[in-house]
Amino acid sequence: MKPAERRRAILDLLETHGEKSVEELARIFGVSQVTIRNDLADLEARGLVQRTYGGAVPVRKVLFNPSFEEKKRHRLEAKRAIALRALEEVREGDALILDAGSTTLILASLLKGRFRKLFVLTNSIPVALELQGSGLEVLVLGGQMRHHSLALIGPATVRELSWYRADKAFLGATGVDSKGFSTPNPLEAETKRAMVEAAGKAYILADSTKLNRPTLARFASLEEAVLVTDAEADPQVLWALEAAGARVWVADLPLTGAKKNRSVPAPRAGEGGKGHEEGD
């Protein structure tokens, strides 16, 4: 991995987890602690991270704005709640597809130490690095790399996905509305579509800011996957999605007092999508 790519991956990990030590980063990326310190010095010089004793935390340009910081912490908490809900669906021995994204990266971190035998296919370099040393079998799909996310997408990825059959796929989405799940990038949409088709059950991990927000390229209908979102979702939006055919699982945010993993409302007969029979 080139230094620029590694630094982007480091920033992605810090954005997701909030803080990592130099020792952890050196282990994850398979480089020396001196190399990681140089990477962090470069990122700090560009105003992207703040170094701490033995590690680093991410910094935003609007760090001085308390409301922004509160929102950032809350979104990470929401994504972790969603990932924890998704984790309940994983079984020992499963073959999984993990899409690129911040919530699926958190899910990957939760798999470590909880399972001894999983086969994980992923198009995400950060997810693959997160699972390094976990003892789980990991296959990284090939394809065209998106530099901002280190995701591998496109025809090569789609072709490779057609060779496999997974038990479950966990994907992200930029937009969710009555027409289905979407993303701004058509190549990414094709890749996500192939993931849905390659799995027995599909789950879309999308926090409440993604709801009622369509984007350019749709990759799945509401009926084809379970939507896992957080407890700050607008009930009216959730009801509208249910009425359009979605199956919605709402993961509790620890500080909201919301009922854990509630579903709103109960699905009508015949409207369940992939994976709907589990987790109620």
UniProtKB/TrEMBL annotation:
<dbReference type="InterPro" id="IPR036388">
    <property type="entry name" value="WH-like_DNA-bd_sf"/>
</dbReference>
<dbReference type="InterPro" id="IPR037171">
    <property type="entry name" value="NagB/RpiA_transferase-like"/>
</dbReference>
<keyword id="KW-0804">Transcription</keyword>
<feature type="region of interest" description="Disordered">
    <location>
        <begin position="259"/>
        <end position="280"/>
    </location>
</feature>
<dbReference type="InterPro" id="IPR001034">
    <property type="entry name" value="DeoR_HTH"/>
</dbReference>
<dbReference type="InterPro" id="IPR011991">
    <property type="entry name" value="ArsR-like_HTH"/>
</dbReference>
<keyword id="KW-0805">Transcription regulation</keyword>
<dbReference type="Pfam" id="PF08220">
    <property type="entry name" value="HTH_DeoR"/>
</dbReference>
<feature type="domain" description="HTH deoR-type">
    <location>
        <begin position="3"/>
        <end position="58"/>
    </location>
</feature>
<keyword id="KW-0614">Plasmid</keyword>
<dbReference type="InterPro" id="IPR014036">
    <property type="entry name" value="DeoR-like_C"/>
</dbReference>
<keyword id="KW-0238">DNA-binding</keyword>
<dbReference type="InterPro" id="IPR036390">
    <property type="entry name" value="WH_DNA-bd_sf"/>
</dbReference>
<dbReference type="InterPro" id="IPR001845">
    <property type="entry name" value="HTH_ArsR_DNA-bd_dom"/>
</dbReference>
<dbReference type="GO" id="GO:0003677">
    <property type="term" value="F:DNA binding"/>
</dbReference>
<dbReference type="Pfam" id="PF00455">
    <property type="entry name" value="DeoRC"/>
</dbReference>
<dbReference type="InterPro" id="IPR050313">
    <property type="entry name" value="Carb_Metab_HTH_regulators"/>
</dbReference>
<dbReference type="GO" id="GO:0003700">
    <property type="term" value="F:DNA-binding transcription factor activity"/>
</dbReference>
<protein>
    <submittedName>
        <fullName>DeoR family transcriptional regulator</fullName>
    </submittedName>
</protein>
<feature type="compositionally biased region" description="Basic and acidic residues">
    <location>
        <begin position="271"/>
        <end position="280"/>
    </location>
</feature>
<dbReference type="InterPro" id="IPR018356">
    <property type="entry name" value="Tscrpt_reg_HTH_DeoR_CS"/>
</dbReference>
